[in-house]
Every structure is written in C-alpha cells, then in structure tokens.
Design goal:
Elements (H helix, E strand, L loop, with lengths): L1 H11 L4 H31 L3 H17 L1 H11 L1 H21 L2 H5 L1 E5 L3 E4 H25 L7 H29 L7 H16 L13
C-alpha cells in the first residue's frame, strides 16, 4: 500500500512538495545519523577527549534537542514550518562545519563543569545549539508531511515519512563509515560531509510549497 501511494506521489504531486520534503528528510537524517554514530570516536580519536567526556557529548546534543522540542513546534506554527526547518538546517550545518574547521586543541578546551552535563568543552558549545537546530528540523518535519495530504491518507504519508527517515538511518552510519575508511580513518571527514548533506536538504526544502499548519476556526 505504501509503495502504491508513493507512486501516486510521483504522479499527482504537481509542485513536487511531497517528494522534495521526503528526500530532504532522507538527506538530513543522513547527516544526523553520521554524526550520532561516530561522535564518540571523533571526540576520542580526533579531539582527544577521554572516553567519559566523549560519551557525554551525545547527551549534550540530545538534552538540548529535548529541551527545545516544544518551543520548536511553537516556532514552526508561528513563523512557518518551512522557515523554521530551513533555519535549523542552516544553523546545524554551520555548527557542524565548525567542528571541522576548529583545531582539536580548541575543541578539547574545558570551559565549565556543570551538574548533569559534567565537563563542558568547546565542542559541547557547538553541539548544544546543534541540538536546538535539530529540534527545529525534526519536530516540524512529520507534521509538515502529514498536512500535505487528506485525513484519509494520513497513515500512508506517515508511513512514507518513516520509510525515508528509517532507510536513511540504516544507510547513514554505513555510508559515513565508508567515507571514514576511504579518508584513512579521519573521523573529522564526517564534519564536512554532514553539512554537505544538509545543504542538499536545504535546496530541496526551498521548493516545498505546502505543509504549513492549518488555521482552525473556532
């Protein structure tokens, strides 16, 4: 059924908004899963952090994603989901590229020690707002996909969302692992390829014309 309706998306989606956002979802998950899968190795082997501090970095990213999840949804309903997602993509791409261009000694510098967060390094100061940017992207994407269709086909379009995001989550770590291998074990390679994937997602989002929150008259 999902395959059948996916073919209908190709045929009936006149402005290609549905296809554009589905492929944008694929590319931004490709970027995110690469970072998520190899962040600890990047932090230990390239930045030089201890195993304990490196292991906390995913938590720093995830905590700020959770904290900003509700505000991201509110922001999307007020200024528009496409604008919110696009701003999140730009912000996340810039922050992750910062992990590529900054020297390892700078990224490893400790700036604070906080409850729950533990040791906070310069790398954390880039990952925390990256978590906020990821919330702006991720929280608004499923509602945008759902609002592109009728109530009768919400389930199908939800399935398409998870098809593209899950397939990307499977491909992402393997593809990014291959890039690391081809680069000779340089884990910072991911911090330049992930922004490139995000730029592709941004270009696709520029052509999305539908999927904004609907005004409900009471």
């Amino acid at each position: 059924m999902v395959v059948l309706d996916f073919s209908r998306v190709f045929r009936n989606d006149e402005d290609k908004s549905g296809l554009r956002i589905l492929f944008a979802i694929f590319f931004w998950f490709l970027a995110y899963t690469g970072i998520e899968a190899f962040l600890t190795l990047y932090a230990t082997k390239y930045v030089g952090l201890s195993d304990g501090d490196a292991g906390r970095l995913t938590g720093h990213l995830g905590l700020f994603f959770v904290l900003f999840a509700l505000p991201a949804g509110i922001l999307g309903s007020r200024i528009g989901r496409r604008i919110t997602i696009s701003a999140g993509i730009i912000g996340m791409a810039a922050l992750i590229f910062g992990l590529f261009i900054l020297p390892a000694t700078t990224l490893a510098a400790q700036v604070a020690k906080l409850p729950v967060l533990g040791n906070v390094h310069v790398i954390s100061l880039l990952l925390m707002p990256a978590g906020i940017a990821w919330a702006m992207i991720n929280i608004n994407s499923l509602p945008m996909v759902v609002d592109m269709t009728s109530l009768a086909r919400v389930g199908t379009f939800t399935g398409l969302y998870y098809l593209f995001s899950t397939f990307s989550a499977i491909v992402g770590p393997n593809f990014n692992g291959l890039l690391v291998t081809l680069s000779g074990g340089r884990y910072n390679t991911i911090m330049v390829t992930s922004p490139l994937f995000l730029i592709v997602a941004l270009i696709l989002m520029l052509g999305v014309k539908r999927g904004e929150a609907q005004v409900v008259e009471g």
